[in-house]
Amino acid sequence: MPSYQISGPNPNVIIPDAGPILAAVQTAANREALVVGKPNTPAYDYICRRWKINPSRTIMIGDRTNTDVKFGRDHGLRTMLVLSGCHQVEDILENQINEREDMIPDFYADCLGVLIPQRCKA
Questions:
Q1: Mean pLDDT by 10 residues, the chain (122 residues)
Q2: Pairing of strands 14-16, 4-6
Q3: Any idea which fold 19-111 has?
């Protein structure tokens, strides 16, 4: 997990990601955390129990290759990266170069709106 992310209107501002925040809580609590969020298996196990999903008919859609896409790939789901968020096509290419197959989506789209069928005008 990256220790920071660059986001917002000012690309020179570095915003801490979950890693440093988790490290601070672990230090204060003086114990190791049990991480259950994406891409970890406890999150997948909960989703499967709660909604009884069929992995062969389920697609994981998200805007991050290192959490959303990895989560889907690690658990046998098809994946789609939405480019309106954190990661872009350049990140997919970088993952290919670095042989990070677990972070390469099956599909990608500019935004979720591409999933809505357009009505033909007569």
A1: 54 76 93 89 93 93 95 97 93 96 96 80 55
A2: antiparallel
A3: Rossmann fold (3.40.50)
